[in-house]
Write a structure and sequence with these properties.
six-stranded antiparallel β-sheet, four-stranded antiparallel β-sheet, mainly beta, 166 residues, C2_dom, GTPase activation, Immunoglobulin-like, single chain, nucleus, 51% strand
Length: 166
C-alpha cells in the first residue's frame, strides 16, 4: 500500500449572527485546532456577520479526531473575549474518502454521504460530503456553543497525495 500524505484544508467562509462583545459590535476571529496544530483567521473589525474566506491547512495524522473551533473578539487593552466554540467530527469525511477510493470516483460530482444535525454534533443543518473531481469536500454550518447565538460556515477539503514519486 502506498504511503499517502493527507492534508485537511479548512476554509473558514463566514460567521452569522455572532454575539456582541464590545459596546455595539465585535471584532471576531476564529482559532482552529486539529490535534496539536493550530491556525487562526484574521480579525474582522466591527462585524457580527464576518466573511473571512480564509484557507487554513492541517496535516492529518492517526488517530483522526475532531476539528475544534473557537471564536474570539479581539480586544486591544484586555484579554480577548470568547464568542463561542464548536467542533466537527472528521470521521464521516474520512469514511467518505475511503468510499471514494473503493468506488474509484475521480471525475464529476458525486454525493458520498449526508450528515444530519443531532445531539452528538454541532451541525446547524444537514451537510453533504461530496467528491468533486477527485477531491472529497464538505460544506458545513456549525452552531456555536456557550453563547446566545452564532454560526460558522466552513468548507472542508480532504486532499490525498502519494508521498512516493510517480
Amino acid at each position: 500500500m502506498d504511503e499517502q500524505l493527507k492534508i485537511l484544508k479548512v476554509i473558514v467562509v463566514q460567521g452569522k449572527r455572532l454575539v456582541i462583545r464590545d459596546f455595539k459590535s465585535s471584532d471576531p476571529y476564529v482559532v482552529v485546532k486539529l490535534g496539536n496544530q493550530t491556525a487562526k483567521t484574521r480579525v474582522i473589525r466591527c462585524c457580527l456577520n464576518p466573511v473571512w474566506n480564509e484557507e487554513l491547512n492541517f496535516t492529518l495524522t492517526e488517530p483522526l479526531g475532531v476539528l475544534n473551533l473557537e471564536v474570539f473578539d479581539k480586544d486591544l487593552w484586555k484579554a480577548d473575549d470568547k464568542m463561542g466554540n464548536s467542533y466537527l467530527n472528521l470521521q464521516p469525511l474520512i469514511s467518505a474518502a475511503r468510499l471514494r477510493d473503493i468506488l474509484k470516483v475521480s471525475s464529476g460530482e458525486t454525493t458520498l454521504r449526508k450528515v444530519t444535525p443531532d445531539s452528538e454534533n454541532c451541525l446547524a443543518r444537514e451537510s453533504s460530503i461530496n467528491c468533486v473531481n477527485g477531491e472529497v469536500l464538505q460544506n458545513v454550518w456549525l452552531r456555536l456553543r456557550g453563547v446566545e447565538s452564532g454560526e460558522l460556515q466552513l468548507t472542508i477539503k480532504l486532499i490525498t497525495s502519494a508521498a512516493s514519486p510517480k
